[in-house]
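Write out this protein's structure.
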Amino acid sequence: MQRTENEFAEFWIEEGILYFIYKHGSIILLDAAKKIVAERLKLQNGVSYPVFCDLRGIRDSEKAARDYLAREGSELVKAVGALVESPVTKVMLNFYMKIDRPRTPTQMFTTKEDALLYLQAYIDRDIVQAP
């Protein structure tokens, strides 16, 4: 399993899905968003994946960072299943999806299982690695 991390998140690819878990207390400013996207693209090595994105660790983010993630951050992303927990995060993600309009299909979920089920339709079976 390919795995990497930085001070904001950890990323790995497993069974055709890229797992993207924000670390607890993360504050996402533009520089952080650029670093996160660069790290993710390096891990993906030119291959597009559906992304399970656990947003529960984010404490705050700035508009410039959200704009960057909605545009440049969509590169090599087939779809996003976003896991949220708090009402504040739900409001932020709804706002993001309506205002920033991510380029890829994005859905919000309150359980990991539901998010992964949603992403199953986007898995490229040719690139799924054996366990």
